[in-house]
Amino acid sequence: MSSTAAAVESDPDTAAKIIPGPILLLGAPGVGKGTQAKELVKLWGIPQISTGDLLRANVAQGTALGNAAKDIMQHGNLVPDSLVNEMVAVRLQQPDTSIGYILDGFPRTLPQASWLDDRLGTHPEVLPVVAVSLHVDYNQLLRRITGRRNCPVCQRIYNIYSNPPLKAGFCDVEGAALAQRSDDTEEVFAERIRAYDAQTAPVVEHYREQGRFAEVDGDGQIAAIAARIVAAVRQLRK
Description:
Blueprint: H1 3-9, E1 21-27, H2 33-44, E2 48-50, H3 51-61, H4 64-74, H5 81-91, E3 100-104, H6 110-121, E4 130-135, H7 138-146, E5 148-150, E6 157-159, H8 186-209, E7 213-217, H9 222-236
Parallel strand pairs: 1-3, 1-4, 2-3, 4-7
Antiparallel strand pairs: 5-6
Helix pairs in contact: 1-9, 2-9, 3-4, 3-5
């Protein structure tokens, strides 16, 4: 049993007894959303659906949707919602989505959220989307981002605050000088937070108004956070 499963197992109403349905994971940059998505994928055996992955896969496979998107991107334009929606619609027809899936990066806007609700609403047997947002204090997120350092040789990642190397500035394994990404600065992070808040606020309010939104503490051990998400999904599905 994984540590996440063990954490959930302490509750008599275990994750195994929950049909998760579609779950939208929300969270500011650096909150650990990707890590938690992977935990829930393992726990429930459901897929993680990322619009970025869908776009790349369609382009690589030369599908009609991928070719249309490629042409748009080659002209320097953003792929429109309508095309992204079509890719998602095709993906949701695959059998591995039958009991649920983790949505990553979609719906990102209110029109996308409305489209998804309308589409799922045409299938009475399909559960509606529930949204769970991970919350971590701004200053802690800032330390996670600005404290990141990576080894250019082995790609090992450190954090000067929470996971520092044995010798400051150098990789424990390779001895190489650690590097900081050019965008891991407070100025860039603050702008990313502002953009995230502005974009997701309408989506959050959309699900909150319908009683399909929960916020959980995103600080602590990975398994404990995952257990909080499971508890939130269980409550939202009642």
